[in-house]
Design a protein that fits this description.
- About 50% of the residues lie in helices and about 15% in strands.
- It is built from 6 helices and 5 strands; from the N terminus they run αβαβαβαβαβα.
């Protein structure tokens, strides 16, 4: 009986680990190169206060902290094209990436976020 219970618990653990969404990433240097070549879906998920301090010119905006973030972002984005997300440092945009991926978007998180972008540009 102990073996069966142990096996069930281990199975549950491994199923939960494998169901996590892996987020694709892109560096700010790669983003700059992409922006110079083509028009991409770039979304800033920072707060309005943070955006007033500066943003990447072609970005659209949807505050990750809004209760209806997913709905607002979905109104702006085209599911048939990749989406590139950034925030201040890359943490919020990674969380936002998971939300959008679970809803059928191909998403790339910009590593280092706007802080890294500002340092390099």
């Amino acid at each position: 009986m102990k073996n069966v219970l142990c096996l069930l618990l281990m199975s549950f653990f491994f199923m939960n680990c494998s169901s996590q969404v892996e987020v694709k990433s892109i560096s700010t240097k790669e983003l700059k190169e992409l922006l110079s070549k083509e028009k991409i879906q770039l979304m800033d998920v920072r707060t309005p206060k943070e955006i007033k301090e500066g943003a990447i010119a072609t970005a659209t905006f949807s505050n990750y902290f809004d209760t209806n973030f997913k709905e607002k972002a979905s109104k702006i984005l085209d599911k048939s094209k990749p989406v590139y997300l950034y925030c201040r440092s890359g943490n919020r945009s990674e969380k936002a990436s998971k939300i959008l991926q679970e809803n059928g978007y191909e998403v790339y998180n910009v590593l280092g976020g706007y802080n890294k972008w500002k340092q390099e540009n």
